[in-house]
Amino acid sequence: MALNVQNTNLKISAGTPAQIPSDPKPQIAFSGRSNVGKSSLINALLGRKSLARVSSSPGKTITINFYDVDKKLYLADLPGYGFAKRSPEDKRKWSALTDGYFTANKNIDRLALVIQLVDSRIGPTKDDEMMLEYLRAAELPFIVVATKTDKLNATERKKNMEAITSHPFIFPEKVIPFSSLKGEGKDELWKTILAHVKL
After folding, report:
1. CATH, domain range 8-197
2. How far apart (Å, rounded) are the C-alpha atoms in residues 5 and 189?
3. Shortest CA distance to 66 belongs to which of 58, 57, 56, 76?
4. pLDDT, tens only, 146-166
């Protein structure tokens, strides 16, 4: 691997589009609903236990956390969506910040890949479908990571993965099964990331 992932730090927690880092590093964005396992996945990728903090209450965080990996690329952790108890004001703030990332990001041309997370146990929700539809309409490069595969038995896994990979909002994009607990999918996801950022 061309990266020293241990040399990673939180660059900024951006609460407005104006705070998005301006240095022209490649960016990998992580998108998904609240409680889909984004923080756990990022920690697993980086071999860290708590760099990306797992919120005690889903939907609490409305910032984009930029992790500087070896001074060569950013992992951009977008705020989770679809949390029912979020206030209308918070929902507006989420929408403005997330939309701003894609439309007011000075380095949007450096966005190498969007990693869209879907819970393998339930498949794409309506909110996931809206996000997938947006990514496709905006012609942004994306793959899907199916999280929490360790919580499925073999029969459930086969059925659910077939449903996810053939979903009309996903097919024919790449789908990677992932378990933060067991490390499944970590190597394949890194290979995909590095191929897109050309490192």
Report:
1. 3.40.50.300
2. 14
3. 76
4. 999 999 999 999 999 999 999
